[in-house]
Design brief:
By secondary structure, this protein is mostly helical. About 70% of the residues lie in helices and about 5% in strands. It has a two-stranded antiparallel sheet with strand order 1-2. A two-stranded antiparallel ribbon has the order 3-4.
Length: about 375
């Protein structure tokens, strides 16, 4: 998806000195110019590189998750792995499909005009492009939030987790998330709202930088609000889970000696390697999502808020900010798989051995839920 943004800006917009959140671009810099405006040729080499890197990264991470799912199919990690696999599949599909659509526009312009020009794509093509952007933008955010909630239940209510979080319910959750994103993305295809070409004409999305209707504003607001809510839920859930794991660790230090005397053996820590591995991955996924998506979502929210405040004149946000925000959001699909590639249990254990060779922080004999049961039995 990063190859949506390889075209350079026109000279007029590049020389703007006041391109900030309150600056508007003149009307003569819009995509809807009557004559094609020349821009610098797109960096096709960089586009091919980012597409290949993103595809290979997601495929590698999916292979790792498939191997883990075969090992932990009947254990508590299976729901988490299913959600993670769905997230990576959506990242892979979004990266390849939106990237191919954008690359087709680039190649078509160079072929027919002999240079990179700012031209509107056909309306049908733009609607398809915009729906893919919305769908594959929402799915990873919703799936990441579902993963955080699942782990929060598994850590804070370990005895209730197997009864509440079943594989059937996880599959239904994935279908519900897909259906929700599909509805919001498909409404403009039913003439409820519309998708517009965005500067510099290499991608399509809900209109946010021009005069928009109430329907378009509502769809843009729904997209940004839903995205920000999912990020908030992920942050809160992961914070609660992390605090619960720390609390369990401190509690173990108090009961470890007496439990060892009574039972002869007791885990050195209730922080099972699986718990730590999943929480580390979740924390990294949340940080990546917040850093990549927050600027784009906040930008849309601010634009729609100005519309509802009655600022409906020719004023508009500078397109450069929106383009930079979307470029940052596109890297989420490339960085997500590296979380599962690098933050695996074996890698984490090796890293901790290098940092603290005299301490064993990961144990294979117990999990947080097992130690919790033992503590209950002690009483």
């Amino acid at each position: 998806m990063d190859n949506l943004f390889t075209s350079s800006f026109p000279v007029k917009c590049q020389n703007s000195r006041d391109c900030n959140l309150t600056t508007v671009c003149p009307d003569n810099q819009t995509v809807n110019s009557t004559s094609p405006a020349l821009v610098n040729p797109p960096a096709f080499g960089m586009s091919y590189f980012t597409m290949t890197l993103g595809a290979l990264s997601n495929l590698t991470a999916l292979a790792i998750l498939a191997h883990s799912y075969a090992r932990f199919r009947r254990r508590a990690k299976a729901p988490f792995l299913l959600l993670a696999s769905a997230l990576l599949l959506s990242d892979l599909a979004g990266h390849v499909i939106t990237g191919a659509l954008a690359l087709h526009l680039h190649l078509g312009r160079v072929k027919y005009y002999g240079a990179a020009v700012i031209m509107e794509p056909p309306q049908v093509y733009c609607k398809l492009f915009g729906s893919c952007m919305v769908f594959f933008g929402l799915c990873p955010l919703l799936l990441g939030s579902a993963m955080a909630v699942e782990r929060c239940i598994g850590i804070t209510w370990p005895l209730l987790h197997p009864a509440v979080v079943t594989m059937t319910r996880i599959r239904l959750t994935v279908l519900l998330i897909t259906f929700t994103a599909l509805i919001l993305a498909g409404l403009p295809l039913l003439n409820v709202g519309n998708y517009k070409p965005q500067f510099p004409g290499t991608w399509c999305f809900l209109p946010v930088n021009s005069l928009i209707s109430i329907t378009d504003a509502s769809l843009s607001l729904a997209f940004s609000t839903l995205g920000l809510v999912t990020l908030t839920v992920s942050v809160v859930s992961n914070t609660v889970s992390g605090l619960k794991l720390l609390q369990a660790r401190f509690k173990d230090r108090c009961v470890k000696s007496s439990a060892a005397r009574r039972h002869g053996s007791f885990s050195s820590s209730s922080l099972h390697s699986l718990d730590v591995e999943m929480m580390t991955q979740l924390a990294a996924i949340t940080v990546v999502s917040c850093v990549c998506w927050s600027p784009f979502l906040i930008y849309i929210l601010m634009s729609v808020s100005r519309f509802y405040e009655g600022i409906r004149g020719p004023r508009r946000q500078c397109e450069k900010l929106l383009l930079l925000a979307l470029r940052l959001a596109s890297w989420n699909q490339i960085l997500d798989p590296w979380v599962y590639i690098l933050l695996r249990r074996a890698v984490l254990r090796r890293l901790l051995q290098l940092l603290q060779p005299d301490r064993v922080l990961f144990t294979q004999s117990s999990s947080y839920r097992d130690s919790h049961r033992k503590q209950i039995n002690l009483h």
